Model the fold of this input.
Amino acid sequence: MTETIISVADAQSVVSLFGPCDQHVRRLREAFGVDVTHRDGKIRVNGEAEGVAKATKSLEKMKAILERTGALTPESLDELIGVSSEGNRKAIEETISVLATGREVRPRTPGQDEYVKAIREHELTFAVGPAGTGKTYLAVALAVEALRDQQIRKIVLVRPAVEAGESLGYLPGDLQAKINPYLRPLLDALYEMMDYDQIKRFMEQDIIEVVPLAYMRGRTLNEAFIILDEAQNTTVSQMKMFLTRMGHGSRIVVAGDETQLDLPPHTRSGLADALKRLKKVKGCAAIRLTRSDIVRHPMVMRIVRAYEEGSKD
Done:
């Protein structure tokens, strides 16, 4: 066991550093497996040497941010923990400029940074990882940026309409109303980056399409940025059909979580199959994001960890 000590100026500094209800300290404990305590103006970090070193580094940076700005946001804490947990000293420099005025999207962990670079450098990118790691969000941001910079002529957002324990047929409305819930997550990401009226206009002009996977058959998409979400729920034949829709000047991102499979029993996932078949294909990249890349509410990381540990029992 190793211990490091950090001196703090006053009790208020400790309160700000630890966060509301000790939220910041709990994030450090979960990320690095250390124990963090305060007594007599000193913060003590105990645990394994590597975890203690990373947690101490994060605390020192948190302290510097508080002294400089007076506040520590969840976003800055996520970035600090992400960089430290990967042992990466290089600052994350990638930024994605989207259409909304003054809006920038930035990867917040080294894994996300690698993902963004892979999409920019490859024609086909696979992203596999748990919920909350930004797989879809970052891909949509890059698609919007490419459209803004006139690198592409259209964005196509695709999802398989696979039922997660509920029957599609029991949903009210016509076919479009039935498939809308499956496409909603893609639209939610889009609405954060563009004005509603602009999205509506682009959809009317066929510049942006949000479609179920089944509607892709027989098409060839040139100069398009195509994103397939929830790819773990494709079959092998569906994945082959989708990937062969690529035309000249197009780029494809395939995102999925192999732990959230909703296919019928004994049906092989098209995502798992494609990762194996295409791992040596030129122009193809595969990025695996982990729970350290989760940037949603801290509770999401704890939930993912609980399910991962439970699957080992």
The CA atoms of residues 95 and 276 lie 31 Å apart.
